[in-house]
User: Fold these one by one.
Assistant:
Number 1:
Amino acid sequence: MCVFAGLSGCSTYQAKPLSTDVVNKALEQKPLQSVSIEASQLDHPLIRSIAIDGNGVYSPDELAVMAVILSPTLRALRDQQGVAQSQVTQAGILPNPQLSFSVDRPTEVYDPVATAAKGMGLSYDLSALLSHADNHAAAQANARSVNLSVAWQEWQYAQATRLSAYRILSLEERLPNARTIEQDLVEALSEANKALQKGYQTAVDLAVLHTNLNQARSMRFDMEQQLIEQRASLNLCLGRQVSEVVPIKRTADMPTLNEQVSELGRAIEGSRLDLLALKMGYESQEYSLRAAVKAQFPKIGISVNKANDTTPISTRGVGVTLDIPIFDRNQGQIAIGEASRQQLFDEYVARVAEARTEVSQIVAQIGHVKSELLSAELASIEEQHIVDSLEKTIHSGNLDYQVYRDARAQLANRNLELSALKQELLELGVALEIATGRSLLSSSITKTVTP
């Protein structure tokens, strides 16, 4: 009955073959609109839940949250949490007592009559209780560390998805300007060929136009290639087919930094989940080392038994076993624990130093890009005035059309520069959010960390 009761709680093996059909079923795409409820109910330490209106066009923020739900990469990453929680369960289980029974029957006839010798004993290893609490606490701290680490990587994945969406919008904004520049140069080259035949221009002028046209065409090809790559990257984040075009909602303005960023490097230890995960890992190692130190205590086992020999005489007894710690005093495990703890300590210090340096570098880059952007905006305003003025003049027939075309090309190039600088400033803002673990942009998927 005891054996039956024990076996009734056992798990059974269930096969899960890694066949093509099983893999294809796991890779089946969920419709984007099907995750709107999950996105609105997302419970994450860093990522805000978001309401999706479901009109078939999605903002970069909506796509970022959807990627956390849909990505096959993140589903595999989250499986680590199940493993860590299983380790907590295992560490909390006490060792089983041991029951022994033996019987020896006489094989010959004796006088006086001999009976079967029987023995039954119940034993338990007490030494496992010494380190049980520390091992359980170590597993719990490790599970918290894994949860924080997974959440940190999910957040970075969401930010990467968001950036891909904004890069697509930026490239779609710049491509018309690039095509306008190329088309103007094609027209200029055609007119220059005619002028060359009449002797109004030289071959050198024609060669310059050819060079400019090739550069403009290469720039347009490069933008189109970047657009293909960014769409593929976005589709991968969302678990979509490479050929699918995900509709992106265009926002009025790109997100901007909403606070001063000069003193952000001092408070990152409480806001970056990767640093908090390392802290939990360090705490887990502290418990593991304490358990290893306690394991130096000699192993003690107690037992109770009842037996009789081949005569009817029965005995009851109590036994104690004790290891003599002459050779193995658990010194190897203690040394490993101390070295692992030191490794985690140094890794944490190095990560903090790296994060603080990274924040300082990004803040300096943001200041530089802001200065460039301001200068480019002022130049764009002046060049727009020039183009407007020339456009009025050319209608009166008092201006060479080539002058107007050159001014318009200069303005188009300036607009390309402005769009690229705005995209660079956005990417630096997202990089600063990642480096600090804080919400810093006017439109952000990040929320305040509450560890």
Number 2:
Amino acid sequence: MINIQKEGNQKRELTHNNEQCIGCGICKETCPTSALNLGPILPIARGIIKMDNININLDTCAMCGICATSCPFGALEFKIDGKSIKEIDEYPTWTHYTKIINEECIYCQTCQTICPQDTITILRNLPERKNLVSGEIEINEEECIHCGICAELCPGEAISVIQNPYGEGEIKVYTDDCVYCLVCKRACPTNAIKAVCRSCSYGDYDINKENALTTGQTLLNFNNCVSCGWCEKVCPKNAIDIVKPFVGTITKKESEECQGEGCHACKDVCPCNAVKIIDGTSVFDSSVCVLCGTCVNVCPKKLITVNRTEMNLENIKSNSWKAQLNKIL
């Protein structure tokens, strides 16, 4: 964590949150005084070195805030008199986003599982089993010998059998746990169990649909979200909408110099899991790449090129700022 404060007519404060920083170097590209430099991104990503991805030269930093403005991932925050420039109309704003449409979400947790930044949390309440099945089960106590076969085979652990050495015993069926699969009926050696599954017999049967639904809540930590698009790509209900920070392309030279699994630097630093090693070479999935350029910074052979043609950064009012911010493209 880096925090710089300077006071004059205004109190200006610049904070760098390394947990949100991906080492893309965009802030370095836009800094008008060359006050920012990248640290050793690859060793930091691999856990070999523990330090911030960037360092700031206090002597040359003009505290203008353009670095914080240009960071599409929110790793830099700039405040004037305690107010973030994100809340000040005169400053540019990023308009990329990740939105989850809760009304369409079925809480399957697929997005949570695949998210490379662990930014999605699905809290779900599953319906009770008794609301999903329908049937009847009955035990003929006179025929039951309390052998325990039904309890041992029951996949829902819905049957309890108590035996004693005098040939007597007790059997209980917990209907809330029973799925009416009829395994117990088929396995009973004395035909003491009668059971029927209405769910199987009738197909779509009359149940309380409201009680049979999975409910929940989808939480998104946008601070760490890089808008890569993995969640949108795998969502079975199209319940996620993403606008990425950049439009453009990523290319890699077809070269034997790429050592693939022997190097995998690009794969190690990619915040989007957009890199795979296939047939001994790095392959990029442009559908989930955010064109951050971190891979460009670490490739030892300089084989990767990121070409950003558009950025979703709006409200750039100053011509001098526009010139600096256009260096991102």
Number 3:
Amino acid sequence: MKKPERVLLAGGRVVDPGNRRVRIWDVLIQDGRIAKVGKQLRATGAQRIDCRGKHIAPGFIDMHCHLREPGQEDAETIATGTKAALAGGFTKVCPMPNTDPPIDSEALVRFELARAKEAGFARVYPIGSCTKARAGKELAEIGSMKQAGAVAVSDDGSWVDDPQVMRRVLEYCKAFDLPVISHCELTGFPYGVANEGLVSTRLGLAAGPDVSESAAAARDILLAEFTHARLHIAHVSCAATVSLIRWAKARGVQVTAETCPHYFTLTDAALETFDTNFKVNPPLRTDKDRQAVIDGLADGTIDAIATDHAPHTKSAKEVEFDIAPAGFIGFETAFSLGYEQLVLAKKLSLADYVSRMTTAPARILGLPMPCLQPGADADLVILDLKARWTWTRDQVFSRSQNSPFFGRQLHGRVIGGFLGHKQFWFLHPA
């Protein structure tokens, strides 16, 4: 009989996001699971990996990304996207349903899961559509999608603007204990490619006001309070929305929220270059909004950090700013940007930061709680927080290369990790 596979990660600093602490421990992995955690473990015959000077954390969970398959495989596939996710330390990802066709049925949820299993990279937990074809009219197959493996529903990319339909979605999902993820963008305003303000006026860009987001969030928060259902606000970008979520939580509304690295890293000043890779939806806001998002993360108003990884082909992005699609790839730079902007800036401790990318999304989506305890799956990442590195195109695993961060020096990086029996290394510990 073949001996069980054993790996000893020796001398690393183990990040425990659940208990908000970091300890110097060894981690013994056997048969794809964590066998022991403690000081100076002995493991005769095990592969030994020296992790001194490195940090070991649970694998990250991205609760909001776009893998483009089916329908837009020229920009990304489930295989290329989940490989890029691993490079960023994300061992679990939740693709949004705005594919072609949209993920609005049991069959399409099963399709995503099958493609992810074939790829063998990050695990996929699909998010289904709220409504059929994401048209905002008729409820999708919510019950059967959950049975197939969907962990939430959303019409991401579109707001469910009919309040009666949204009420029905919330009430129906309450019966299945599913969170409803809302892309808050009030209809009726002209579509803006930039935040309405001084920058958009000076650059002559079509602008949309931040109240488009906050007013939509207010309606959905009140509907969630009325229905006693679970609401999650996606990609929070402005100060008013942060205040509304804080108010709602104080009232006991079952509301959670996420933001993305670009909303606490960039402002609309980045649009001065007219680089379409800075075009996102919702658009980059002012520095006041950026600071409010950071404050929301610091005090727990904003629960989680997601990437909103949005690959687009080179030809799609190399057009006029007004007609270019919104979004950019985000898996491979997310951890470093957050470490720099939140941890090094002393807004969050390392353990708190990791919790925003592990235990918080797991709690919201009902996934197993990430931890590095005996008996848990060996689902972990190894981090080099001393690393200083520059993001370049030749480091990209995504099929697309639409990032505004090429050439930027970043602090801290994911060098590898484990996904059950599988080891993945992008930079092996010295």
